[in-house]
Structure formats: structure tokens, C-alpha cells
Fold:
Amino acid sequence: LRLLPPPTIVRLMSLAYAHETQCHATARFADGLVLECGQFIAPLDIAYTTQGRLNSARSNAVLVCHALTGDQHVVGPHPANGRPGWWTAMVGPGRPIDTDRWFVVCTNVLGGCMGSTGPSSINPATGSAWASDFPPITIGDMVAAQARLVFEHLGIPRIFAVIGGSMGGMQVLEWTVRFPAAMAAAVPIATAHFHSAQNIAFHEVGRQAIAADPSFHRGRYQQHGVVPERGLAVARMCAHITYLSEAALTRKFGRRWRGGMRDLPTEMFEVESYLQHQGASFVRRFDANSYLAITRAMDLFDLSEDRPSLADAFRATRARFCVVSFSSDWLFPTARSRELVRALHAVAASVSFVEIETDKGHDAFLLDEPDLHRTVSGFLSGVASREGVGN
Amino acid sequence: LTLAPLADDQELRQDLRLIAAMVPARSRVLDIGCGNGALIAHLARTRQCDARGLELDMSEVTQAVAHGLPVMQGNADTDLVHYPDASFDFVILSRTLQAVSQPREVLRQMLRIGASAIVSFPNFGHWRVRWQLLVTGCMPMTRVWHRPWFETPNIHPCTLHDFFSLCRMDGHRVAEWFAVDDAGRQTPWRRFPRLANIFGEQAVFRLTSN
Structure:
């Protein structure tokens, strides 16, 4: 294969996709990546999945960007627990991001723990895991890494759409700023152009919980053969509350006791039991140092930084935007999306903007939310027909 | 692949068809109060316009976006200020002027962000409205003004005559105007604004800055 020119390799890969519409792989870039902080990491590994088939014009690629604790297994099944992927409601055959039509790519973010280079990868300088020595990364670094996969490894010159919720939405925005002509459509969902003081505050509680766990060993827990499970679980529990609305918590749990029992020594509200379960299952699939690195990357995100205004960030963009927020999302409230929409107006970008009425809070983007699905599928079809892309 | 049949020519409201006829091909258009996007869908499909919409009602917005139209949820009173000067060739406000809280400011903003503004509104000077108020002494209820006074969103009704006065006062040039009768047909009283103010059920204006 190495003797063949790169386009041939790409063509062979397309042939492979022709009978296999799902692919899990890791791309290695031996020449590494220079990070925004100035440090250099090599090699750069990017683990990714694809669904569907890349058309001969290479014009039907949709890049899905995952959120803080997501991964590349959009549709699944997840290798750690065999469960369906995190966005099966949105992505699949006949779903709003229809894999019969679109070639869906999702990468594990830089700093993640599902195969892409991150704190649990081996640092070639020391021969052991990077752990707490892993350089600080940014949303921009994540996007730079994705771009290498898309442009160089997959040979896709222009993406049809970049889509993601929460931190995935931050990546979408970063894509439109860094590569303003590289996509036809951008769909930032339940996100913001910066991480607010409140957002940072909740992240800090989580990080402090991890740091306070005696098993943390200043990040070198792997060397001690332990995992800061309790700290990571508390971080997840705290974060999980922020993903739900008060109304959703009340609807799901109210003041009910687990098992309907009240007078046992182990008595527990259903909501407590639910959160403990969320924490316990999270530590089985996520690495604490990755959690620290990625939450920090989100905190550092601010597209208006070092620019006269947010609008200046989008001046060169050619993408058509569909901005989506949820009425009960207090973590990334609709007000943030409106600021974004105003900045896009100021540069006369084409913007659709929908606030979806729901009580499910920030997590609504992951759930079965018919208005969200109608919006995304309609928007993609509209852009496709305007751009003459697809099928 | 086609857009869903949201707005066939047959289904397009008569006043919207008249407005569409004023917009040249490939114009940049903003439709304020675009509803489900029927007009912008029509302009995009039949005239290859870059047509966008602004709509207050979220369920209408969702419907429009789900049909692939570039529509955003927003408020004419507060959101127009964020658009840069001269970003559109035409800014359209159909049957919405009477429902905004600052009609005068909205008109100013329309002419700031667009080279031309097209405005349609139901004429409160129509003879049926006058007759009902005169005879019954109650707020008129007609086909166009069909909500009782205590729940109508139409907080700023005006007559064709009033609108001419406002344009004069604020220095907007009336490039074109006509009235539409009960059946939605363009009426022949172009040269007689007084008659139009009696028999026109709706008015359509195209304004430009002086």
C-alpha cells in the first residue's frame, strides 16, 4: 500500500466502505501536532468511526463532534459496555443525519481516552503515560487534529456539515472560524462561543473532587495501579445535575424513595440512587486525567478573545448555520445562542435559529426530541438542495 | 431532492404573490414575520433569491427550518438592530407592522438594513371597519380584524392615509403602492388614495430611503 500514491489509497478505502458501511479505525500522524500552547506532541493518534459511504465526489461527509464525555462511537455498540452509541436518535439509516445519504465521521477528541492521543497515551520521551504531564489542550487543538484526519487521512476536501452539541458545538464554531470555507453547513447545538464563569465554576468543583481523591496521586494513579474512582464519580454526579433541568429531575424522580421504602437504614431518594449509578458507570469508561484535560479545554474556549468583537471571528465564514438551543438548558442558555446569532448577523451569514421548547435541560440534544430531529433533517436537506449536494 | 411542498404558487397567499412580483430575481431578501416561510420558499425557488426569514412564533420557525428554510426565531422590535447596514436588497414586512410595538422604528431599521422595504398591512380605514364602528359603536370585527380588542396582537392598527403621513414625516420615499380588495385583487385606485383608503382591505407599499 505504501508504494501507491495517496489518492489510490483513498480510493481503495472507498472501495472498502462500499461493502462495509461502518468503520472503526485509528489514524496515526507520525509528524505530530504543534499545540496552541506551543508544545509539540508526536505521534498524533486520532481514533474515529465512519458510518455510511463517501460518494465519488467526496461531497457528502458530515463531521459529528462529540461532547465532553462522549466518544467516536456515535451509533455504537460501545466497545466498553456493548450499549448503543450516544447519538442513535440522530444518526443512522433513516435518522435525521441519514447514513444512507451522508458519510458520517466522528473522532475521539484530542485529550480523550478512547484511542486518540490523550493523557493515558504513552509519552515517547518517558516511555510511560503522559498523565498529568499531558500538555494543556484547547478546542482549537481538537479541531486541528480532526482537520488532519478529514483533509489528509480521509482525503475529504470540503465537509458538507459539521454538527455537534455542547462541547461538540464549540468544535463546530471553531471549525467555522479556522476553516471558514471548508464546510457548507454548521450546526452548533446547545452551545456557546465561550465558557462562562458559571460553567467554569462547575468544572472546577469536578476537578477539585478528583484532586481530593486519595487515589489521585497528583495524576500519577496509573503508576500506583489505582483509579481515583470516587473523585471522578463525584465530578460526574455534579456535572450531571447541570445537564438536567429542575423540571426534568422532578418529573423523573420527584421525592420518591428507592423501592418505595422509607424506614430502612439504607434509605435513599431515587435521585440519589440515579446519580450514584451515573457516577459509578462513568468511572468504568472514562479516564480522570482526560476529564481534567478536556474540562480545561472547554474553560479556555472564548472565540471573542483577542478580537475586537465576536463577529470578527466569523467574518470569513461561508457556512450556513443552524443554531439550536433548548428552553430549559441553564448550562448553555438560549441567551448564549442569541449572542452567537447576532454576531453571525453582523457578518450577514445565513442563519437559522431555533429554540426548542423542552423541559429536558442541556441533555435534550442527546434525547429523543422530535423538534430537534425535524430541525436538523430539514436544515440539512435545505442546504443540500441549495448546494446541489448529496445522492 | 426537493423542498417539501410548503408553498406552491397556488397556495401562496394573494398579498404574498403580489409582494413576490415586486422582487427581482437573485435579490437578497429578509422577510420579517415570515410565518412558515411560504414567501421565502417561493422567492428562493422561483427567483433564486437569497431569502431569509425572521419569525417570532417558535412553532412556525421550527416548521420553516424543518422545511429547509433559513429562518430564525426573533423579534422585529429588538433584533433588526443587529443586522449591518444595507445587507439586503429587500426587507419585507407583511401583515406584521400593526403587531410590532415600535412600528416607526421598525420601518427605519428596515430601510437601514435594506435598499427597499416592502410593507403590507390591513387597512383600518376600510369601509366595513368604519361602518361597524359607526353603527354598532363597538370595535370592528371583520375578516381581517377578527380578534376581539382584548386579545388582538394588532396593537398598532393604521389606515392607508396614516401610513402615507408617517412616510412623509420620516422621509421615506413611496416608490410604489397599491391597495388590495376583499378578494385579494389589486385595486384600480392607484391615483385615488382616498378611495383606496375606503375600498382597500389591505395596502402594499414599497419604500426606499430618500
Q: What stands out?
A: Chain B has a mean pLDDT of 90. The CA atoms of residues 58 and 146 of chain B lie 22 Å apart.
